[in-house]
Structure formats: structure tokens, C-alpha cells
Amino acid sequence: MANSHESDLMPVINKITIQGVRRLRDVQLNLRPLMVMIGANGVGKTSLLDALSLLAASAAGRLNQSLNDLGGVADICTRGSPDGLALGAEMDCPGDVPLKYRLHLGTKGPTYFIAEEHLIQQRKGFPRPFKHLETIHGQVSYYRVDKDCLAQPDWDHDPTESGLSQVPKMFKQPEEFRRILSSATQYHVLDVGKRAPVKLPQQMRPATLPGANGEDLVSLLYTLRESDRDRYDMIEDSLKAAFPGFESMNFPPAAAGMLSLTWKEKAFNHPLYIHQLSEGTLRFLWLACLLQSPGLSTVTLIDEPEVSLHPELLSLVADLLREASTKTQVIVATHSDRLIGFLKPHEVLVLDVDDAGHTSATWGDAMDLDQWLKDYSLDEIWRMGVMGGRSCESP
């Protein structure tokens, strides 16, 4: 199914390749506006999100830090693989041929090196692709307009980071590719512990996102109420649909320059403060704000959005994901069969494992489900085992 974003003229990442990342021995995927992954525990859903985050980090100059956060390159490579790992992405360029990026990390004990990297574009009428960037065994070269050829850097180069993140400004399309890829953002399950950032007073400052830990949730809502009332009203409408007793929110000052949030319900005279909200209420509030935020990145990665949510809220979550996918590519990992019951087969990607323990990925609309869907919902078909998704013993 083709991408159907609001503007067909906007460049999008249309394909990714992941090789040598845990169970993802060799996975190639054509991306869609909304991709909800389901499969057994340990099948590779979170690994796929991590691989996409590594791609984003490679474009943003955070590759070394991201690898360290994931436990080091040796921890994430496919077991027994001597070749390290490789990541690739392809971007549609309206009116032109796609840009193709590949990054191959070799391993050397617990460390890594950039064995190969290239950013190429097959130009019409030319037998060989045009090279914007090329790295071979740590030697970087990039296209310089003033020399009309590939040239080595005359600036300090960090060998632990990709050339993509370090080369000077390139042509418009490669720059757009770098921007889109580097902006991809991963969101994990929201921390709602006693001292979680989302429960604390927040600075009164402009915000366009609620923050990965909800640290800007109050600031975002206050900003929208004051400067983008239509969007704020949409969030309130989502909350009223999810919680029929909900009436309104307010933002009392908590200290100089700090705001809190109160939640008013129709049945009670006194509002609840944000730290008094249930885990499910708080997580739905954060998710609704995230998916309707004005600052969404071009690619949004969400791990287990269903955690703590009542099953009846999942239809609203599906609607929010689908609406957000008109503005950002939404990639979700879920364990909830109930959630996929509110989705269409072309929005669901099933991850399974083969006899060797490696991951395969199949879109729901590539399966022969038409006859099944006449009598059963998609989640029922999943529970019956028709769509695959076998259990795994280890990650």
C-alpha cells in the first residue's frame, strides 16, 4: 500500500534494511504511514525500534552514545555473526529517484568501527549512482561542489560517528534525508512512579511536545490552551471520549515560573492534581498529547502504547495513531491483540521466527485473510494463530 500522508510531495523514508541486530538477521521492510508490529515476546519488535533509533542516532551524531545505551555493539549483534551489523534506509524524492543510505559497523572485541557507509542516488541517464558520501574502512570521502569530486575531510573527523552526521551541508535532498532520519524519536512506556517527571511541577515555557518522560506535558498543554486553542480542544475531546466524567483541566501556579495541572471531573467539586491521577489516565493523557502535538518528528517510534490502558480505550488509541500517521510515520510495537482488533490488515506487521530463530516480517494484507475477516475480527484471527507470531525462547 502506498504512503498516504497529507502531502504526497513530502519526502518520506519508504524502506529500511536491518542486518545482524539480535534476531533481525536480515529484514527488509517497505514502510507505511502507520506500522503496528505484533508478535510473541522476544520476536524482535523492540529490536526493530532500537535499530531505527540507531539509524536516527547515526544521522544525528549520537551513534556511540546510543550503542552504549543499548549495552554495546557486541550485545546487539546477532549471535554468532562475524560481520557486525548493517542498517539502511531509502527515502523517496518526489520528482527524482530515491536516496539510499547504508551503514555497516564492524566489530573488534567489545568495540566497533565503521566498515562501510554510503549515501547514493541513481541518476537518470547515468550508469553508476551518484555518491554523496562514501566511507570504506574508516576513510571518509564526500562530494565537494568546489572540487566536483569525492574528497576527504579537511576538518576534524570523529571515527566513532557516521560521516552522514559530520559532513558539511550537502544538496537539498541529502540534507532533507539527514534531517528526517536524525529527527526520528523513540518513546518508551511512560514512567509514572512517585517522583516521575510527569508528576512534578513544570516550568512555564513554550513547548511543542510532551517530552519522552512527560517532563513538558503541562507546559505543552498550557502552551496549546493559550496559543493553539483548536488543537487543545481536540485533546480535550479525546479525553472526554476516553473518560465520560472528565470536565476540564487547569494549570495553577506551583511556584515562581512553575505550573501544575489539575483534572476536574463532573461528579466531584474538587479537582485532582496530576500526581493523583491513575497510571492509565496519566498514560492516556500523555499519549493523546504526544499524538496530537504540533512538534511531532517525521518518524515517531512508540513501544507498547497500551500499557495500563483499559481495553475500551484501545479503539481511541487506534484512531489517534491513524490520525497522527497523516503527519508523521508512526511505528508501534505492541503486545495487545485487542489493539490490532481496531486496525486494518494493511496497518499491522506480524513478526515471526523461522526454524533458525531469526525474525521474519509480514504485512497483514499480504496474508490470505479475506475469508477469515468475513466471520472474525483481526484480533480473533490473531488469537487463533492464523497470522503466525510463534513464541520465542530467548531474545
Pick out the low-confidence regions: 1-7
The fraction of residues in strands falls at 25-35%
**Helical residue percent?**
25-40%
Number of strands: 20
Number of domains: 2
**Could you tell me the mean pLDDT?**
91
Structural class by helix and strand composition: alpha+beta
Q: What's the overall geometry?
A: globular
**CATH first level of the largest domain:** Alpha Beta
CATH topology of the largest domain: Rossmann fold
CATH architecture of the largest domain: 3-Layer(aba) Sandwich
Please state how the strands of the largest beta sheet are arranged side by side.
2-1-4-5-6-7-8-9
Outline the biggest β-sheet. Answer: 8 strands, antiparallel
Can you put this structure into words, describing what you see?
This protein has 395 residues and is of the alpha+beta class. The protein contains eleven helices and 20 strands. The protein has helices spanning 45-60, 63-69, 73-76, 172-183, 217-227, 229-242, 279-291, 314-324, 337-340, 370-373, 378-383, and strands spanning 13-21, 24-30, 34-38, 85-93, 96-108, 111-121, 130-136, 139-144, 149-151, 185-187, 202-203, 246-250, 253-255, 258-259, 262-265, 272-273, 299-303, 329-334, 348-353, 359-363. It has an eight-stranded antiparallel beta sheet. Strands 10-17-18-3-19-20 form a six-stranded mixed beta sheet, with helices on both faces. The chain has a three-stranded antiparallel beta sheet with strand order 11-14-13, with helices on one face. Strand 1 (13-21) and strand 2 (24-30) form a beta hairpin. The radius of gyration is 23 Å and the shape is globular. It starts with 12 loop residues before the first strand and ends in a 12-residue tail after the last helix.
